[in-house]
Design the sequence.
């Protein structure tokens, strides 16, 4: 038994050492490419290889993959099959595939980037897409990483940055970088104030609160010529340097940028594992894509909630647990969702079996019909306010009213703190289940993650940091 144990230690140590010998952590490489196609066909077109500063992530492969994502990038020695580095991520293209245009085979192009430590041996970058029906990753591109002709990143001419708090060297900590879009030079102090205020809410929420010493927090912005970002529904077209806009995929509150070039160039001046973006606006909105970035409007009454909710998507690959709001995607019941906090109960049990409350009934009964009927009115009013471009204050008042109206259904004493399987989640009222009656990924009511979401975030923090 002891010999086997010793052998295992040697095998794992050997792998780890050889991996480290094959990577040069003083340089990060960013591969930029275009992702082209639609729901039924997609391909990747290479653009260029860029070099950045030292690799800020963990040095070894103990950052094993969580298995939540649609795409995977691997740095591989092809003749031996040795994987030097691997990461998983979702992308805007991946979301496009679920929109009506994507399903109607309308071809679109989105620019994307993937970063990894520089290999010192001949290695290929392999990009793969998850195939739901086969349950495997399918390679889309395999390309030798060049050892010459790489372009050094060019920092923006005008940028300002600040360290909020540093707990240690980048490779041993989760490096969060907050970027600003739509802030003019005169808004510089406001940007750092917004970043401090909203990150304060994040680090007052578990598990970030008790694991704060595993984080470094920095913020940076490029001054914008004009204030704010495009808001097509209200015919506002001011464009910030990072390319963020409201109404992405024709969903008014959805804020994204499909121009990673400027985002990554600004970010490359700082060590970062995760990006959070603040857009200088009071109008409600945000977005978050796993291992890409999270974005939130800065000044809405609900901004603290949106900031944390979107971070849940981008940091831990959590899914939306809500199902009553209008969305940009076409959603149909399918196989077990990839997200760790959603389940269709295959075999009658959820994937978070180990976290279930003792003796809880599966599915767990709750007053879904009462909640749904309250939300019908709220969502009708919300659509009217959105379509008419009503003042922000009216939408904020509606959200306060919603909280009052739904409190009764979402916080009954008998179900608080119970981890079970509550029907309704992942944009579907039926057939998809969430772990608790309420969570930051479900509603704006409760300022805490459910136990399953919290546990996933904890795991991700542990993967990206050493204590
Ligand atoms: Zn949750």
Sequence:
């Amino acid at each position: 038994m002891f010999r086997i144990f010793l052998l295992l230690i040697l095998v794992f140590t050997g792998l780890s050492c050889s991996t480290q010998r094959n990577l040069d952590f003083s340089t990060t490489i960013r591969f930029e490419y275009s992702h082209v196609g639609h729901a039924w066909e997609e391909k990747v077109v290479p653009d260029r290889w860029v070099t950045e500063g030292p690799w800020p992530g963990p040095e070894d492969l103990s950052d094993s993959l969580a298995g939540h994502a649609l795409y995977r990038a691997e740095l591989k020695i092809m003749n031996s099959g040795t994987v030097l580095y691997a990461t998983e991520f979702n992308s805007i293209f991946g979301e496009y595939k679920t929109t009506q245009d994507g399903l109607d085979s309308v071809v679109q192009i989105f620019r994307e980037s993937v970063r990894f430590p520089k290999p010192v041996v001949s290695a290929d970058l392999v990009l793969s897409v998850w195939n739901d029906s086969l349950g495997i990753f399918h390679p889309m591109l395999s390309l030798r990483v060049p050892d010459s002709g790489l372009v050094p990143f060019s920092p923006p001419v005008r940028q300002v940055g600040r360290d909020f708090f540093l707990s240690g060297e980048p490779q041993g900590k989760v490096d969060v970088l907050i970027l600003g879009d739509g802030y003019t030079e005169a808004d510089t102090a406001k940007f750092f104030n917004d970043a401090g205020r909203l990150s304060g809410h994040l680090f007052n929420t578990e598990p970030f609160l008790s694991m704060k010493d595993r984080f470094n927090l920095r913020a940076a912005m490029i001054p914008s010529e004009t204030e704010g970002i495009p808001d097509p529904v209200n015919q506002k077209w001011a464009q910030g340097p990072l390319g963020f806009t409201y109404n992405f995929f024709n969903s008014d509150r959805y804020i994204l940028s499909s121009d990673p070039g400027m985002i990554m160039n600004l970010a490359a001046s700082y060590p970062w594992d995760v990006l959070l973006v603040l857009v200088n606006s009071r109008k409600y909105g945000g977005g978050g894509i796993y291992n890409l970035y999270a974005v939130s409007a800065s000044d809405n009454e609900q901004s603290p909630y949106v900031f944390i909710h979107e971070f849940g998507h981008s940091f831990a690959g959590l899914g939306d647990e809500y199902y009553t709001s209008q969305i940009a995607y076409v959603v149909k019941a399918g196989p077990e969702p990839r997200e760790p906090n959603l389940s269709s109960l295959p075999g009658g049990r959820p994937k978070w079996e180990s976290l279930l409350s003792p003796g809880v009934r599966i599915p767990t009964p709750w007053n879904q019909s009462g909640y749904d009927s309250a939300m019908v009115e709220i969502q009708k009013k919300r659509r009217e306010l959105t379509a008419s471009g009503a003042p922000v204050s009216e939408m904020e008042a509606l959200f306060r009213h919603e909280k009052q109206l739904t409190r009764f259904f979402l916080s009954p004493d008998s179900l608080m703190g119970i981890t079970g399987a509550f029907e309704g989640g992942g944009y579907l009222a039926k057939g998809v289940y969430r772990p608790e009656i309420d969570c930051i990924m479900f509603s704006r009511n409760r300022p805490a993650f459910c136990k399953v979401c919290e546990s996933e975030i904890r795991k991700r923090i542990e993967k990206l940091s050493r204590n």
About this structure: The chain has three domains: 15-152, 160-316, 346-447. The CA atoms of residues 129 and 451 lie 29 Å apart. The pocket of zinc ion is lined by residues 321, 341, 435, 439, 441, 449-450, 452-453 (CB under 6 Å). The two ends are 31 Å apart (CA to CA).
